Amino acid sequence: MSTVVEEKDDVVEQGVHNYSSAKSYVKPTEPEVIEQLEWFQDQKLALMMHWGLYCQPGIVASWALSDVDEEWSRHQINWTDGETFKKQYYDLNKSFNPIRFQPEEWAQMASDCGFKYLLLTTKHHDGFCLWDSKYTDYKVTAEDCPYHTNEHADIVKSMFDAFREKGIGIGAYFSKADWHTPYYRTPEIPDDKPSTRGPMYDPKEDPERWEKFVQFTKNQVLELCENYGKIDILWFDAGWVCERSGQDIRLGEIVDEARKLQPWVLSVDRTIGGKYENYVTPEMCVPEEPLGIPWESCLTLGVDFTYEYADRYKTPRELVNTLIGIVAKGGNMALNVSPQPDGRIPVDAMDSLRGLGAWLKTYGEAVYGTRACAPYQAGNICFTKKGDTVYAIRLYPVAQESVEAKTFIPYTGKVEKVTMVDDNTEVDFTVQEGGISVTVPAGRRGGSAPIALVFKLQ
């Protein structure tokens, strides 16, 4: 997770987006958006949820529908050929029935585990909508989807309402590509024409059809903004859908219309840069240095951005270490968790999230509402700040590592008092060249190390 994705001409490689350079960042000028961006930078931790048809067979999200991506995306498709698979996939809406979905329990879990905002896939690239869109029948509330009779059939509404009730911010993930609508692509693909990430026609050669797709996209985005309560973030995926690739959906016009309804809403037009990418989104990586602009690493609790059978979930120690490394550089972490086909969060995933939440309940003061503080990270010591207070977080990545009697903190600012964040115990320290040496309280030394010790420098 510590490697950086190099910027390339291709915005996506094996389903993973690169991220925009700070040079392409344009700071918002609208007062409501500026204020919302400060809110965003205070939150630090998002629950990202990829949820869709792909969770049923436990395969990569949508990507196996693209023939040009089959080499990496169909490693789990071993029971049939590609054309048969695509037909089977598109029919998964007829068996989508997560009857054990309980939005209030999910929201309570998110609150207990320290998440401050939600990023939910309202629609992934496959075009299947988790809300009652009036612009398509390929949706969870359609009559051919068995879940449509459930009280929570409009999953987006149920999720947004439940999470908002817990004071959790709302982010709507929305794929700009749609591999189901005939305005962009249709499931009835001729065998002699391989499917790609893009439209199955040239927008320049069929501008009327492309304009229908532009309006279709606009209508769906505005539908979410009009009917689903306060939305804090519009998170646009599928970076190849943009003007420079010949797929101009005029997203700026769409966002401007959305802001007539919700003036504060942040726009995240991934990898595009400019006025409508209000923060950047490194994916499956953590930048090695602070970016100097608002950013959010989107990572996974398991192996990928979907539910997989017998997945391996990161431990609370791994999660805390990654989160602190991100926050120390001024970023947020969006942590993806996907539900099982029956609508439950996997038990092992819940155990990891509860461990993260327990740590944040004690040490969240050094995380939420903080900003980056030089020297950011030095070995296993990370820094954050809030006003005049600096937090030094000593991470212990290896569980069996013992706690040392003294810890050197390479911070050269003025320090008059050092306390432990968890119980306010004041600790002795001496000023040395290049920082301070802190005496760890006797009761915390030796033995198996905790996830971290957090010192408050005042």
Question: Mind explaining what this structure looks like?
Answer:
The protein is globular, with a radius of gyration of 23 Å. The longest helix has 21 residues, at 207-227. It folds into two domains: 12-366, TIM Barrel; 371-457, Golgi alpha-mannosidase II (Immunoglobulin-like), CATH 2.60.40.1180. It has a seven-stranded parallel sheet with strand order 7-6-5-4-3-9-8. A five-stranded antiparallel sheet has the order 10-11-12-17-14, with helices on one face. Strands 13-16-15 form a three-stranded antiparallel sheet, with no helix packed on it. The chain is built from nine helices and 17 strands. It is 24% helix and 19% strand. The protein is of the alpha/beta class and 458 residues long. Residues 1-9 have low confidence and may be disordered.
- Percentage of β-strand residues: 15-25%
Order of helices and strands: EEHEHHHEHEHEHEEHEHEEEEEEEE
Inertia-based shape:
globular
State the CATH class of the largest domain: Alpha Beta
Helix content: 10-25%
| Arithmetic mean pLDDT | 94
Low-pLDDT residue intervals, each spanning 5 or more residues:
1-9
Overall CATH architecture of the largest domain: Alpha-Beta Barrel
Task: Tell me the strand order in the biggest sheet.
Answer: 7-6-5-4-3-9-8
Total individual domains: 2
The major beta sheet can be summarized as: 7 strands, parallel
**Overall number of strands:** 17
CATH fold description of the largest domain: TIM Barrel
